[in-house]
Amino acid sequence: MHFIIQRINRFSELLGHLLAWLTLVMALLLLTVVALRYVFEIGSIALQESVLYLHGAILLLGAGFTLKHDAHVRVDVFYRGFSKHQQAWVNLLGNLLFLLPVTVFIGAVSWEYVWVSWQRLEGSAEAGGLPLVFIQKSLILAFVVTFTLQAIAQLMISIGAIKGDD
After folding, report:
1. CA–CA distance, 114 with 48 (Å, rounded to integer)
2. How far are the Cα atoms of 82, 102, 122, 144 from residue 125, in angstroms, in the given order?
3. Domain range spanning residue 130?
4. How many domains does the structure of the chain reveal?
5. What are the tens digits of pLDDT across the range 75-92?
6. Transmembrane ranges (predicted)?
């Protein structure tokens, strides 16, 4: 169990660090878009869409990293006062009853949406836009995979904490 947790956590960490660099790239692209538009009066739909694509990738692929670091939104009114054992139970039940079912639901309802986009090799509706909308939509399924993997690792960590494995 520890081997699986380590592998998933390592993957989430590597992906998180890659996404941190993509955030810098996104910020630089956005700065370029603004400079081109307001200083040189040049617009670029492709550059604007690149920023949107990167933003979507960072958000969707960074969810597992965020879960690993317990940095997601949580109402800690009671949780913070719980013992580690009680917190492990809350995390276990939250994963089993809410997180995993919602993630599976997202994957199920998104599958056809992504598949149709791939069949059409969907591109931007804007003139001069990027022909990669089908790749962007695929990030929804990538989110499901990466987030589910990290949720499984968190589930195993909770089980270990409940059993007293530290």
Report:
1. 22
2. 51, 30, 9, 26
3. 2-163
4. 1
5. 677 888 889 999 999 999
6. 14-38, 50-67, 88-111, 139-162
